[in-house]
Amino acid sequence: MTADRSEMSHNEGEQEPVVVRDRRRIDPETGQRRAPAPNGEEAQVPESISGTLDEEIAKAEPAAEGSESAAEPTQGESAGLQQQVDELTADLKRVTAEYANYRKRVERDRESVIAGAKASVAGDLLTVLDDLERAEAHGDLNGAFKAVADKLVATLNSAGLEAFGAEGDEFDPSVHEAVQHSTSPDVSGPTVTTVLRRGYRFADRVLRPAMVAVTDHEPASAEPAAADDDSQAEQG
C-alpha cells in the first residue's frame, strides 16, 4: 500500500511539461510578421503566456495594418506638409534678407561715425595748418619744426583730409567764398585769381570753403575803334 502511494507520488512529480504552440503570425514584441518556421514546426512559448492566443492574434493584426496605413500620409496631408515647408522656407529667406540689410545698415552707420570723428579732429587742426602755411610763406618753417609739420600734414592727408583752392580754378560757389571781385578780358568766365585762405574737404564733406578773389570776364572796349572812325571822317 505504501509502495503504491510512493509510486503514484513519483509519477505525479514527473508529469510531462505543457508545450504551447505559438501560432501568431505577428510578433507581439516587434509588431512584424514572423517568417514561417522551418520543417513546418511552430515556435514554442512558455506555459505562462499561454491563453487566448486567437484573441491576441486578432488584436495584433488590425493594429499592424493600422500602423502601416498611418505611416503613409494621404494626398491631402502631403499637400499640407508641402505648404508648411514652403511657408517656413519663405520665412527663412525673409529673415535672412532682413539680417543682411541690418548688417549693411550697421556697417554704414559705423563707417559714418568713424568718418565724422576723423573729420571733427581734422577740422580742429585747420588753424594749425594755416599757421604752418603762413610760416612756410615767410621762410620760418625749417629744421626740426618743418619735419614735424610735414609729418602732421602727411598723417592728415592719409586719413582723408584734402586741400583745395588754387589760382586758375573755375569759381564754384559751393566750395569757394568770394571776398574780392574784378573783371578782365584775359579770362573767359569767373576764375579764381587769388587764394586768400586754402579750403579743405574730408571725404565727401567740405570742412571749410576756400577764401578767394574772383575775376570775371570783361569784353574788350569798343571806344578806340570809334575814335579812329571819327578821326578818319575829319580828315576826309
UniProtKB/TrEMBL annotation:
Xref: PROSITE patterns: GRPE
Cell compartment(s), UniProt: Cytoplasm
Keyword DNA damage: no
Alphabetical GO biological process terms: protein folding
Region (Disordered): 1-87, 215-236
Low complexity: bias regions: 60-73
Coiled coil region boundaries: none
Ranges annotated as biased composition (Polar residues): 75-86
Pfam family, one: GrpE
GO cellular component: cytoplasm
Location (main, coarse): cytoplasm
Record key words, sorted: Chaperone, Cytoplasm, Stress response
Bias kind Acidic residues: ranges: 226-236
Biased composition (Basic and acidic residues): 1-32
Family membership noted in the UniProt record: Belongs to the GrpE family.
Subunit structure: Homodimer.
PANTHER family (UniProt xref): GRPE PROTEIN, GRPE PROTEIN HOMOLOG, MITOCHONDRIAL
Function according to Swiss-Prot or TrEMBL: Participates actively in the response to hyperosmotic and heat shock by preventing the aggregation of stress-denatured proteins, in association with DnaK and GrpE. It is the nucleotide exchange factor for DnaK and may function as a thermosensor. Unfolded proteins bind initially to DnaJ; upon interaction with the DnaJ-bound protein, DnaK hydrolyzes its bound ATP, resulting in the formation of a stable complex. GrpE releases ADP from DnaK; ATP binding to DnaK triggers the release of the substrate protein, thus completing the reaction cycle.
Protein name: Protein GrpE
Species for this entry: Saccharopolyspora hirsuta
